[in-house]
Amino acid sequence: MKKHFKLWTTIGIILLIFSIFFYLQMGYTKIPLREVVESMKGGEGTPNWYIIHEVRLPRILTSILIGSILSMCGLVFQGVLLNPLADPYTLGISSGASFGAALAIILNITIFGIFSTHIVSFIFAILCLTVVIKMGSFERKMNPTSIILGGIIIGAFFSAGLSFLKYLADEGVGAIIFWLLGSFTGKSWMEVSILSVVWVFGLVFFCYYAEDLNILALGEKNAISLGINPSKIRRILLVVSSILSAVAVSTCGIIGFVGLVVPHLLRFIMGTDNKKLIIGCAIWGGVIMGAADNVVRVVLPNDIPVGVITSLLGAPFFALIFRKKMGGGNLR
Amino acid sequence: MIDIKKINYSIDGTQILNNLSFNFEKGKFYGILGPNGSGKTTFLDVLSGYKNAPDSEIYIEDKELKEYSHLKLAKKIAIVPQKFDIVFPFSVSDILEMGRYPYKKKFFSLQKKDYEIIDRVVEEIGLEEFLDKEINALSGGEEQRVIFGKALIQTTPILFLDESTSNLDPYYSHTLLSLVRKRVVEEKTTVIGVFHDFNLASLYCDEILLLEKGRIVTSGKTQEVLNSKELEKVFKIGWEKYQTEKNTFVFPRLGGGLE
After folding, report:
1. What residues of chain B lie within 8 A of the CB of A229, using their CB?
2. Under an 8 A CB cutoff, do B90 and A272 touch?
3. What is the per-residue pLDDT across B145-159, written as a single tens digit (0 to 9) for each?
């Protein structure tokens, strides 16, 4: 299949911009497009302006940014660990973050104000990352297999801890479960600004290392002979993409499958070159997550957490692509 | 070119390379022969910076190996490894372009000069028809030609071949080795190749090093080494020799009453 990078990038960008305007109209209160466009010019104070600017826009932008970040991180994890099944949570970050959030909820930690839960969960995600990287490194060399194994061990440990906390929480278990199921409900400009900064940093950083990521795929010996220090590149990329994922998880909870599926989807239409895929993931991750959250917000009742939907739809979809790909005898 | 004062290398107390020393001169094709486990690949791994031998003293173009960064070394030495495993299905042209990585600036695309180098090698090796194909879809021999091409595109003064032609049919073995030979003569490239096929070594190498248990048993002009007593001793079988005007070819003699 011919890989059309420019075509798909252009389609993605156009789709992204149009979809924002499209989603802004939709919701409990229908707002006509004309009014949406006018509210961009001004007219503060009216109820519709408030709905558009303080409720819908931050939520839509948050969903797009999170989708974009998770997809880029998924791509980087797959490339660094040379494992097509890796995703942003491979290093056990989601378990660490969940445990931290549950702990903050149960102990009612409020030292960081309204963001206490987010900050505690971030701290635990980083703790996880540090332990896993320590476990996976021997004599300053980093082995993908031991990293993945470390992630599984730490993940299992914190999952057990989380179960224990849920057991202790008794009636508070609802709050924990609600937090764990990723959702974009009630996100404000605060989240949007944090995520934007992280997103810009991530995109530039990953573009800078995209070529090194390509070369890692040639194997250790080839990579070294081309002038790369694989252990160093792996460590830098793992740490940065884990921190980005930790930010994503601690702001919006666990949203599964996006980080795994989007990179594969894009390999399908754009080829294997990570320079192109990073851009592709940044755009299409946003398109897909934005659409998923809009379905949750507008179509489905009761504002079901979007994490449930991405996994429910993502899993069969993923199975479908893989069946099709394996038909060609080539899983990757 | 490569001046080895000494190399000692051991894994878990087993000495793999034992006080090796040798001086490789510029513009010569060296062959390394030796039985399995004699340390041939490890020798190249240490010289290319893949394995770190703390107790060693190696100079590459008069500068000690330890002082080279990975990137600087990549402009001096290219290797064609014995085996490789590419996880994601890159296209052949993607992989060939990676050969220019040591010279490329971040965030910039390749220059016209880079593409000229790539085009030249593609033509020399005959990779035109594969450029858009995925590497995983190629046969073992075709894959090896791509990796060979990638190393030539790296345009280094030193080239290491680690049994690089083991997957290739005679036509491509000779095409590629002739290409390398041409680079040795015309561009004064220094080549060190590990061989299991003595007759290929006989045709292309200027000098041969015979390795056994991490030591150089003997070294010298190709024909002399192939005619030496040490060759029989090291490989523990008898050799029939066939002499032409320029080359010595050797064949294992059937032993153990099988004749």
Report:
1. 70
2. yes
3. 898 899 999 999 999
